Each structure stands twice: as C-alpha cells, then as structure tokens.
Structure prediction request, 175 residues.
Amino acid sequence: MIDAPVLVALANAGRPRRPLGARQAVAEDPFERAESATRMLKPFLGRSVDAGELDGLRRLAREAGRLASSVADGTTPSPRGLNRLAAECTGRIQLRSSPAGGLEAVMLWEAGPAGAVLARRIVEELGGIEPRRLRRCARPECGLFFYDSTRSGTQRWHSEVPCGWRERQRRRRAQ
Prediction:
C-alpha cells in the first residue's frame, strides 16, 4: 500500500501541537531556520536545506495543507498550485540493462530546489493513494492529518499517544 509521508509531513508543518505534559498547544515554524527545516525534511530529501529554499518550502507547506484539507473533506482539489511548484523539477528517461537480463526504461530526476523535489514527490503520492484514507485526527483539539494505513481502514487518530489516549481519558471522565 502506498502512503503519503511527504504530503502528511508538510500539511502538518507549523500546525499547533500539544506535547505530552504541556497545557497549551504550541505552533512552531519549521521553516524559520534552515536547520529546523533540514531536521524535518532530510529523511525525504536526503540532503540539507539551504536558507534560500525556505520561502519555497513555506509555499509548498501551505499548498500541501490546502490539498490535504480538500482530500480529507472529500472534495477534489485544484492541482494547479502544486503542479506549478513541481515544474522546477526536471527528469529524463534513460534505457538501462535490467538485472533480469532485459532492458528497462528508468526515469532519472535532476536535483532541483527542495520545494520542487518535494512537490514532485507529493504529486506521485497523491496519484497513488486511496483518497478516503487521508484524514484529520478525530480528536477535535488536534486536527493533524494522517494517512490511514491500517488494513481495516478505521484509524481515527493521527497517533495513539497522545490523541487516542487523551480521547479515551476524556470519555472515561465524562461517564
């Protein structure tokens, strides 16, 4: 099953989160500094983020949030903004010998700005996911996005800890 880790990470970037033990939700801008953006995006990019790429990443995060919100609400979003951001990522096709002994066509992507590389990844993710599995956390105070990768497709919270735990705790106290 294909999931959408880049889309989810960028759609949730900057959204308020309440850490365990904290009384208030805290919103941090992961694109304030190149170091914080690198910490968040290095697993997807495989490299560090440059300070000059931060504005493009902010735009991409806003676009990812808009797209995730539309998909989670069951509407079809306009892909125009995402396609515009991904346009800076260029690729070329190359013919190679395959390990099985035949020939195969392989798409090679040129390194580009971080925003364009990640926008291309989001295009691929959105083209391969089941839209009904992209959801918002069911805990009203949370609202983070997640991709339900459970077999039954019934996941309700973005994470068992803290949201699942807090929701069950609230229900027990209400009884």
DSSP finds six helices and four strands in the chain.
